[in-house]
Amino acid sequence: MEFTSVLFYVFGLSFVASAALMVSARNTMKAAMLLILSFFSAASIWLLLEAEFLAVTLILVYVGAVMVLFLFVIKMLDVDQSTLRAKFTKYLPLGIVVAVIVIAQMALVLSAGQFGLDAVAEPARHAADYSNITELANLLYTAYVYPFELAAVLLLIAIIAAITLVHRKGSRSKKQNIAEQVSVQAKDRMRLVSIPSGKRKESK
Amino acid sequence: MFKKAKKLVKDFGLSEIRAGMKITAKQLVTDKITVQFPEERTPISPRFRGLHALRRYPNGEERCIACKLCEAVCPANAITIESEVSDDGTRRTTQYDIDLFKCIFCGFCEEACPVDAIVETHIFDYAFESREGSIIDKEGLLAIGDENEKAINKARLEDSKYR
Amino acid sequence: MWQAFVDLIHQLIPWFDGGLADVVIILIKGVALILPLIIMMAYMTYAERKVIGYMQLRIGPNRVGPFGLLQPFADVLKMMFKEIIFPSKANIYLFILAPILAFVPAIAIWAVIPMGDGFYITNLDVSLLYVLAIGSVGVYGIILAGWASNSKYPLLGALRSASMLVSYEIVIGFVVVTVVMVSSSVNLNTIVADQSGGIWNWYWIPLFPMMIVFWISALAETNRAPFDVVEGESEIVGGTHVEYSGMCFALFFMAEYINMIMMAVLAVLMFFGGWHSPFEGVPYLESWFAFVPDIVWLLAKMSFFLFLYLWIRATFPRYRYDQIMRLCWKVFLPLTIIWIFAVALMTQLEIGPWF
User: Fold this and answer.
1) Stronger pLDDT, C243 or A86, i.e. the higher one
2) Distance from CA of A180 to the nearest CA of C (A)
3) Which end of chain C is more exposed for a tag (fewer CB within 10 A), N or C?
């Protein structure tokens, strides 16, 4: 057995185990941590397949950004576990139906013989100086440039939409103009007055 | 407009950050004023009021005559005195305790003493390891006095012209 | 000599088609890198206390050993023998996980950082991205510490510092994009190799504003003053560190300092020519300084940046939190985007020796 196979089984096991534990974890924070572990395991498996750009991007985007925002939401929201659990039985039938459909779909796809080594050839091993990211960039900016640009524009629209949703111009907001605060000088706020000394006006 | 451009240049040129860093860089190389305490000490006024001591006359006789003026004047009730008539017919203390936890180092005992027996020395870096250690008895006070008689004398001499 | 050593290990451990031997070699390399790193980190704390002391007209630690040089070891001993206190309402697993999650990424980044010509643990093709990715994992240490402590101040510190870290990561990402555009590579080895040939070939000239933006963002990324809102002693006592003691606290501390060293090295690699001598191509100076090993240049440049950390800390008061966010989103982000366009223009026009 090659050492990389050992690594594959280790990462695969941690991937499946962390995913299963994530679904069954009661503590939301713990579940989020287990999800991060499963992301890491997936990234490691991709690294074994020489897809280092994809692996690093997975960690950068999902672990570094998306999950952090998730944890923020978990922290900020006061999730009441008991009310969530109270409706568990109410939605159980629907949940079972959805789960059965998903499992059936996956079973159909996976058992169709599309994914075995006989159907898909093992990815070719490349020399050490082979640059994964250069190949990817060549494809993205030539053959797939329109889908790539479209996806970028789509994300931009999403950002602008999100900002417009929260951005309100109204009299109720009491936000500070920090630029003004920062640029304030001593002479804007303070006036030095020289008052002639010695002579005193007689008070009535 | 011109003013705004000038401000922009100033802000993005980090002028105030550079000014601040120049000051700290200057401080980095200036002489340090730290006094390395156990080896070096700052000068102390002759009137400094530190740890207490009981003094003796040059012939070895205790100065204290158990008049209890210090006990009476002490605003913190830190002094406890018991007295008896001694063998030679003079009045002497049998007990002279100072509780350093109570003492506020006001120096009133020193002022009140008619025979300059109780004084406050320049010792300030003392420590005790148990709670009872805060109470110094007569033997302890006399020992401090014997040990520091020279320094006490010198300080009193220096201060005498202002009294 | 290194090759002979590698062959020896391969002979000693013949199982797994040599795969295990490679792992052993990587482990040895890792230990050889981490040990000096930890010592460097320990003396960084000493240097910090000394430099800041001098800037505040004090002397700093001077009791343990000559000039206080053994102070870091005294600190380590103290930390190791201190009790680790667990708050009774804390989530113990996450409470312990937090310092580990802060420390491990700080160490893991060093796997791809080259310290000299061919002097690295792995030559990962996407090493710059790897640094960004693993660096962004460190924020979990702070978030978890704030949440698991079940205490007010840690939560406040974690909230504001986590949002700060995520924001400044974006700025650092954009700065890295400009560097990648100039060198057209995300491999740190290639980026440094592109900067060979004297001080005017280094990237700090075409990317001068980006270098400053990167450095200020690096201060924020490592939670250093004036961006140390996570601790904020005068506001929230000690932030996420409030409930931590002993080795648990020491791990946070070590992670912070190792990240500082990492950021300093990264700045040198990206903008100051890595291990290249500044005198390359200068007639006489080049041959005079030819005997200096390349790692010495790297360490010298790195030391300057580490000194800058301390200098800045001694100079500036803490930023107000909303101003930190303003600086990130309203000043740095537009500036970096403008400079990306400028770099694109410069690349097209092939200005200078950099493109």
Assistant:
1) C243
2) 11
3) N
